Amino acid sequence: MLGHCLREVSLIILQRYILREWLWTFLAATVVLLIVLIGLSLGEMLGDIADGQMPSGLLSILIVLKMPEVLGTILPLSVFIAVIWGLGRFYRDQEMAVMRASGFHWRLLLRPLLSLIVPVAGVLLFTGLYLAPLCSSLAQQKLEEAFRNAAEWGLQTGRFHVLRGGDLVLYVAAVEKDGRTLRHVFMQQREAEREQVWAAERGYYSLDFRIMEFARNDLRLPDFEQRGDSDSIEARSTGALLFSGDPEEVAELQWRLSPAIAAIVLGLLAIPLSHSAPREGRGGRALLGILVYTVYANVLYMCRNWLIKGDLPAFPGMWWVHALVLIAALVWLHRQGRMVGKG
Question: What residue numbers bound the domain in which 203 lies?
């Protein structure tokens, strides 16, 4: 009886050890991927600012509001990397062989795995169904409000603004407190082979309209090219998408649910995928994992586009992709049970 209790305690300690290894790897992978994707988003936003499509003053807040979307992309991949990399180290360092010798059945990996993927899936569900649409809606509101005010749009006094790749140059000496009245305005505009220059003591900033009168000329700044209007599909609440028959809304709802499902499926798939021979390096398994993830993600993207175009019905929609990968993971687990720790 005492020996049985000691064995159970030992197995629990091993499970906690595995979970701790996965958790630290998961956090490290999340930080690295977060930095990479934020850098890519930052570069895209800076390009929009240079083209006059986004106010420079909103750069920091828009990056924050983009975080839920970024997390929905990287967290499933972080889970996948954590399990593959963590188990790969156990195999390489012969720790898994020792665990198997002590009676550590491969099914005992499921407990620490579920301890990792269930909270992550919960976070992804909350993020995809509520937080991401809310942040998208707030981002649209901030952009619309900012583009109605010259100061918030990013018109900095006393400097030249080069927009549209150099086709438009704007200079404003001062902006009055109302945010719309401009003092000492200079503008140079190039269209095809025609170049025009304007100078005025006073100008007025306006959005979405322009007025032409004899002895007065209000020139329109670059149009605000929204990534979607205030009622864009990304900004709509999940409740508004439920029970909808519109293909685009069906695709958006399934897309919001996909990261949480993918985190669970990829976590299960990573267990057999991480198995390696004692002297086999982790590089090959890592490359195979990247290939599997790339195919999985790309097929989901294609199904989303097919759903939007109406080429794919709402059922099976994207569900068949998750189901296919899940079945492959379970079959692989069953067939390779002895290789991943069967006692």
Answer: 150-217
